[in-house]
Design a protein that fits this description.
The structure is a single chain. By secondary structure, the chain is α+β, with helices and mostly antiparallel strands. It folds into 2 domains: 10-176, 2-Layer Sandwich (Nucleotidyltransferase, domain 5), CATH 3.30.420; 192-261, no CATH class. Helix content is 23%, strand content 28%. The protein has helices at 53-67, 96-105, 121-134, 143-158, 170-173, 298-308, and strands at residues 10-23, 26-37, 43-48, 73-76, 83-86, 92-94, 108-111, 192-197, 203-206, 209-212, 221-226, 231-235, 241-246, 254-255, 273-274, 278-279, 282-283, 286-287. The strands form 6 sheets. A 5-stranded mixed sheet has the order 3-2-1-4-7, sandwiched between helices. The protein has a 4-stranded antiparallel sheet with strand order 8-11-12-13, with no helix packed on it. A 3-stranded mixed sheet has the order 9-10-14, with no helix packed on it. The longest helix has 16 residues, at 143-158. The protein starts with 9 loop residues before the first strand and ends with a helix.
């Protein structure tokens, strides 16, 4: 039986697979996030190179802004970014960050019964529509260009067509959904959080690249936060920001701020010239004396060899 929902009641969400894309010097899998509102059939589309928790939340957030509101329920599969596991009694153990996100925006997450993906048939039809109408013959330069064309397609084709089931135009029905308002609510923090120990040369490793930290924080446990705008924030464990870097492309790159190494005494094998101060309790200036080395004639070495033999 076809199940229809009331205005504002439900959105359905799914990921589609769209092959691969060359992104920032690497070949990455390409995913398409689709959210469809159950009553109006208004659709949101976004392409990403990751389907992790951060991008799962970000795509929801972008869709809420696109629709200018939040539905009462969001229905989806049992993805690990949403459902950690189902107990034998059927109780769902939700991903804590997704559950916090749902509480923040005031919607109820719902997961389909295992092996019953047809429960969210509206969004599955939406993914097929993207693959059959938008994707064939498409050319694009990069991920930004692809998403720009996707937004144009939503505005000029997908959401202004007369829907085959409802016989209504989604864009005209959307204002009647009565979604929960976003006004006055700051965006949920979707930054990726990780923990790293800095090395003795004042670097932390993240996603195959290295980033400098102030020298006083070498060999310490630190918190890293990756923002959607491709910034890497480095903080103490109690949240004090130490520095931030643009995310590097590729692998084995070193992103260094020279100011982080100021104040360190450079190591040198050459004699060090004193400017002022004390050396071994004595004051003065000039060149440090080299250590005294005893000089022996070579015949002494020959004598020691004969004796030891």
């Amino acid at each position: 039986m076809r199940y229809e929902t009331e205005p504002g009641q439900q959105a359905q969400v799914d990921w589609g697979s769209f092959g691969f894309i060359d992104h920032e010097g690497r070949r990455r899998r390409l995913y398409g996030f689709v959210m469809t509102l159950g009553w109006s059939r208004a659709m949101y589309l976004e392409f990403t190179v990751s389907a992790d928790t951060a991008w799962w939340l970000r795509c929801h957030l972008h869709a809420f802004h696109y629709f200018d509101g939040v539905p009462q329920q969001v229905l989806h599969d049992n993805l690990k970014t949403a459902v950690l596991f189902r107990a034998t009694d059927g109780v769902i153990h939700w991903h804590p960050r997704y559950l916090d996100f749902a509480h923040y925006y005031g919607f109820t997450p719902r997961a389909c019964q295992p092996y019953r993906a047809q429960t969210k048939g509206k969004v599955e039809s939406g993914v097929r529509y993207v693959k059959g109408n938008f994707w064939p013959g498409l050319t694009f330069h990069d991920l930004n260009d692809l998403n720009h064309q996707g937004q144009q397609w939503l505005e000029t084709i997908a959401n202004v067509r007369r829907h085959g089931t409802t016989r209504q135009i989604p864009a005209l029905q959307l204002p009647k959904e009565g979604l929960q308002s976003l006004s006055g609510k700051p965006d949920y923090d979707t930054r990726v959080v990780a923990y790293r120990r800095s090395s003795k040369d004042c670097l932390v490793s993240y996603e195959g690249n290295y980033y400098s930290v102030p020298a006083t924080y070498a060999q310490q446990q630190l918190m890293l936060k990756e923002t959607e705008s491709k910034q890497l924030l480095i903080l103490t464990l109690d949240g004090q920001e130490l520095t931030r870097h643009p995310l590097a492309e590729g692998h084995s790159q070193r992103v260094i701020q020279r100011i982080h190494y100021q104040g360190l005494i450079p190591y040198s094998t050459k004699p060090k010239r004193l400017v002022s101060g004390q050396v071994n309790g004595a004051t003065g200036s000039g060149v440090l004396d080299a250590p005294v080395v005893e000089h022996r004639p070579l015949d002494q070495y020959e004598f020691w060899v004969e004796v030891s033999a």
